[in-house]
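re: ur question from yesterday

yeah so i grabbed the chain u mentioned. its 167 aa long if i counted rite. heres the sequnce exactly as i have it in my notes:
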Amino acid sequence: MAERICVAQIGAAHGVRGEVRLRSFTEDPLAVTSYGPLESEDGTRRFTIEALRPAKDLFVARLAGVTDRDAAEKLTNIRLYVSRDKLPPIDEDETYYHADLVGLAAVTPDGAPLGTVTAILNFGAGDLVEIRPDGGEPLLVPFTDTAVPEIDMKARRMVVVPPAVVE
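ran it thru and got these structure tokens back, copy pasting raw so excuse formatting
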């Protein structure tokens, strides 16, 4: 299990007063403000959200110490993390954090190995599961009930219906 969980990502600067666009990855998008200071991926920078307001498909945030557009632009694409112990515990078998899926074995419905889950990605059109086979290029599969019909956290495996090959 991951020690830190990515809960948000800073987007482009918004306006001239240092505000930034912010994508929240939490189940309740406003919960991103309740975890205290957020850290950069490398853990060297801490960010405190002073204000957050909804905008189209994201939030606009004012971060402590960021007072102008130049400072805000330097933060673009920084992913924000919190310690796992600050997040609500998971009590249900069918519930997990995306970070918990990294490292699962990916297998076909008949049990043939596909590789290892290396990431859960989102480029704006929905989540994708990245699977790295033992050799070759990574496979990207939509993270839907159709393409990923089963996740067994106890067995550390994910059943994946690979996309049809078009020739």
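noticed a couple things. The first strand starts at residue 4 and ends at 14. also DSSP finds two helices and 13 strands in the chain.
anyway ttyl
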